[in-house]
Amino acid sequence: MSLELVLITGMSGSGKSVALHALEDAGYYCVDNLPPELLLPFVTLEEDIAAQRVAIAMDVRSAKSLPQVPAQLRALRARGVNLRPLFLDSTTDTLVRRFSETRRRHPLSAMRDHLDAAQPPDLQHALVEAIELERELLADLREQAHVIDTSVIRPAQLQAHVKSLLSAPASQLTLVFESFAFKRGIPVDADYVFDVRMLPNPHYEPELRPLTGRDAPVVQYLAQSAEVERMYSDIDHFLSHWLPLLAQNQRSYVTVAVGCTGGQHRSVYLVEKLAAAYSAQWTTLKRHRELEGF
Questions:
Q1: Beta bridge mates, 194
Q2: Structural domains in the chain?
Q3: What is the pLDDT of residue 110?
C-alpha cells in the first residue's frame, strides 16, 4: 500500500494548526513546519518503515526554499506517493483581524520592516503588505492544492471539513457542494459560483423563516417553483458537461458554491438536491457554510 501524504500549506493565520490537529486525531503522523529541504528524505524514511498516513505542514517561514516544493511534489507523485495537498486561505481583512486580535507578528513582518526601513512605521499597512507578499510566495503551492476558505468558519467546522475531505477516495474526482450567504462574502475556495438570489425566497413566509433548505416545508415550497426548477436544470446541465473533462484533467476536488442572501433556504435546498443527484456518479460532499454544522 502506497504512502498517503497530506501536505498542508496556506496563509499564516488561516488555521493550519487546527487542520493538522484534526489529522492527528484521525490517526495521521503529523509534522509541523518541516523545512522543504527535508521533505524528500523524510518521505523516504517514512516509506522505509512502511508508514501509511503522514501529514506535513509547511508555511512561509521557509520562504527561501519554498520554490523547490512544486518540483518535489511532482517527484513524489512520479514514485507513487498518494499526495493530497490542501491550501488554507482567508480574506486579507480576516487575516488582519486575526493578527490584530492575537497581537502576533506576521512571519514576514521582519522582511517588510527591512524593505521599508526608510519609511515611518504604519503597523496596519505593514501587516497588509506582509500578507500580500505571502500570497505571492505561496501562489504556486495554492495552484496545485485544494483550497479551503476558513474566513468565516469556526475551528470545529474546519476540523470536520478536513476529515470529510480526506475520507473521500483519492483516486477519483470529489465534488464539494457548498451553500453560502452573499452578505458574508463569496467563498475564496470556490471553483464555480452560482447566484440564486433571484429565486422565490422562503424568508418572506413567516412559517418558513426559521427553517432551512433541508426542512420538508421549505423543500416543498421551493420544489413547486418553476424558476427554482429552471435554475437547478441550468446548473445541472453545466456541471454534466464540464465535470467529465475536469476528471480527465486529473482534478482531485471541485468546489461548486451556490449562494443566496442568507445562505439558509434557497442555496441549501439546491446544494442538497445537487449532491443527491451527483452522488451516484461522483464522490460528493456537502458544506453549508452559514448553518451550525455542515
A1: 258
A2: 4-166 (3.40.50.300), 171-288 (no CATH)
A3: 64
